[in-house]
Amino acid sequence: MIAPPKISALAPLLFSVPLALAAAGPVKPAAVFGDHMVLQQGMKVPVWGTATAGDSVTVVFAGQSVSGTADAAGNWRVTLGPLKASAEPATLTVKSSGDGGEIAFTDVLVGEVWVGSGQSNMAGTVSKYAPNDETLADLAARAPFPEIRLIRGGPAPAWEPATAESVAGFSALLFPFGERLQAERGVPVGLMLGAVGGTPSGSWIPKETYDGSDKCRADIEAFARTFDPAREESLREAKVEAWEKAAAAAKAKGEKPRGRPPGPVRKPGETSRGGAIGGLYERYISMFPGYAIRGVLWDQGEAGSGVVGVDQHTMMSELIRGWREAWGQGEFSFLFVQKPSGGGCAWPASGAAPDPVTRNASACTPLPPNLATLGGGDAPFLYVRLMADNPNAWMVPVSDLGGMVHPTNKWGYGRRAAEVALQKVYETGAQAYGPRYRSHRVEGDRLVVEFDEVGRGLAFANAETLQGFAIAGADEVWAWADATIAGDTVVLTAESVPEPRKVRYAWAQNRPWANLFNQDGKPALVFEAGE
Asked: CB within 8 A of 427, min separation 6: which ones?
């Protein structure tokens, strides 16, 4: 839901600190402003920078003229009122009194602005993935896109139009997302990118947020209570020995050893990978906060939190909070791609023509004869919980889009993310989600599950029966359930569980046997519930 923006008490500090060294000189807007930029429609738009202390600074744009005064450190900040969307190139001028001069930014549009961040699945470029993604290649071939503008965070950020060259070097996930939004909303779109492969969430959280986080501290303290340094060192030594034997065997065959030997044991609270806490946020994101945006699209998770003892759910919840505080515009929308990627079957029945969104999905398989595969659901469920526990945070469901660590169908991922934005942020009525657990009740030997996001109704596909549900009694012995759709509910029974108490659906990292959908073609979300 689109909420009116709010400026937090931290915002003035966050605007001023990066600019504190420039106490005097010609007027200079912050580096995030430039030619070809897109300003956010429908909300207040801050503009800030440096000038000579005491100078009056005036910003003129779209019929508005707002002024402010540079403080003793040379920092100034003014705010434009809400702007109407416009694809007509305009000029934004920044003028300073005295001899501070004037700067004019040209080819400025007004529309929707989104930030993309995360690790390799966000950082991977169109040119890298297009050779294996026909639809993405077709999209790139349509360049230029006059109403889409791109910027990358870093030491010298600069806005640029979406030309064939700039699109090729941009995120293969974020660009299809933005292109779909532009086509559906009919307004210009600005895409701001800061992403690095192989990086944990701890690298992207503002350091001050992490340092002040009671939740992260509690995670570390809880982990420390069960941490046994001697045991961990013994396990590490065994792993090193095993790696050395494997490496020696590989060398004897003239092959290169795989991987690396295990590193030293990390203590609770130490970073396990990815460098300093907040290091990548500072380098690639810190120049963006304050620039009015609609929301964030995030794709990261394979590298975890990067801090020993801190759960990914905790780190991401605090990261979302920290980014929102840094931007100072309230609980803006924060979308994040489900992890692990893929692993489930897609809606079209076997033999149907491939859908360009889901063509890399897993083939649906019969329900396993035992429960050997019914494990590892904690990781997928973590992201469902993250959505439930954080307001205006929305998971992009992708269990039906292919199960590789680096899915090749980036166009499909971007399109699915746009569907989530259209439904949850812009409230257009698009059905982005499949059935989502609401509640359950026990009726004798039956367990009845109720769902939200049923769309046009519940359905199953690719098999003769609905499968993927398991139930257990108080003894926690799980059994595959016979499942029947009844309206917006699913009724579950199992001969070996006469008094069901708990239920799981798709409780595994890879779940090609789970086949509950809605009739809009979206897969049900993994869940676990019960006493």
From this structure: 1, 2
